Amino acid sequence: MNQNRVLLAMSGGVDSSACAVLLREQGYDVTGLVLKMSPAHSQTVADAEAAAEQAGVSLLVRDLTGVFEREIIANFMEEYRRGRTPNPCVICNPGVKFRALLDTADAEGCAWIATGHYAGLRREGDRTLLTCGENPERDQSYMLCRLKQAVLSRLLLPLSRLPKPEVRRVAERAGLSCAAKPDSQEICFIPGNDYARFIEERLGPGTPGEFISPEGVPCGTHRGILHYTVGQRKGLGIALGRPVFVRRIDPASNCIFLSDAQDAFEPEILLSGLSETFPGAVRDGMEVTVKIRSRATPARAVLCREGERWRVRFAEPQRAPAPGQTAAIYDGDVVLGGGFIE
């Protein structure tokens, strides 16, 4: 394994392209890898090819359409059909993206892998700690919370200490055409980000059902539960004379239960499928902070083990934790792992 060789995940965006420039400046021999994971990724491949040529690195292309369909898209659609709110990136990272990076790095003799995520790494003895990015507004550690040591021990994150304007300046100095390219806010496999339309085009239209008011009586008709998420206020089409939120989605009865704003807070959540970033990271009775969505403020909490699940008891109730979403667990700036909200 060549300790000077790095396999870099590339998408044609400014972040991964700037990584290529920075890694080469640090003396690494860089090979790019772009993953085609759905028909919507054809432009990603073309953009990565252009960026790799401009950055002066060779590029490998892997077609993962089949595994991505099975592991990510199918799960995404089924979760919404069950009234849950999945985060496909958190699931894709350990299950598809970083697995492909490691497999390809091994085949190419690269000791290291790298991505353009805004997060930090700290090497301590025989383990590598995943940490928050230095800029809280751009911190992407939540998206990486289910990575394990097999990945983290070989990972480089060249952008961990750079603000986005500096990343764009790196690309500009290198003459990369992507320097001014806007950040994507879309789900990568759904152009336009209309996830409900995407699911209905594949699985058929949702079944209308009843909204149930905070008082427990039917108060309107919804379009199908996949159109809604816990905590949603806008787009309900309900006029009760006051703001109401989606409190609970029940796929068995096909009912959506609403609540008033003051009732949208929960004192605790239950997590399944907890994945630790290093063995023994999470302990019963541990005081931690928890993010219940990617842009949430970390909330103080205590962890209580219940068999294979973990109960998270918050110091202050949190607004609308959504079943299916990931909760990322932190000890200070260190990411301990992540589980799925039940």
Structure, explained:
With 342 residues, the chain is an alpha/beta fold. It folds into 3 domains: 138 residues, Rossmann fold; 59 residues, Adenine nucleotide alpha hydrolases-like domains (SH3 type barrels, Roll); 77 residues, Translation factors (Elongation Factor Tu (Ef-tu), domain 3, Beta Barrel), CATH 2.40.30. Helices cover 25% and strands 32% of the residues. It has 7 helices and 17 strands. It has a 6-stranded antiparallel beta barrel. Strand 13 and strand 14 form a beta hairpin. The protein is globular, with a radius of gyration of 21 Å. The model has no long low-confidence stretch (mean pLDDT 94).
State the CATH superfamily name of the largest domain: HUPs
Structural class designation: alpha/beta
Number of domains: 3
In whole angstroms, how far apart are the ends?
42 Å
Q: Give the overall form.
A: globular
* N to C succession of SSEs: EHEHEHHEEEHEHHEEEEEEEEEE
CATH level-1 class of the largest domain: Alpha Beta
The percentage helix is 25-40%
- The spatial strand order of the largest sheet comes to 12-15-14-13-16-17
Q: What is the number of strand segments? A: 17
Main sheet specs? 6 strands, antiparallel, barrel
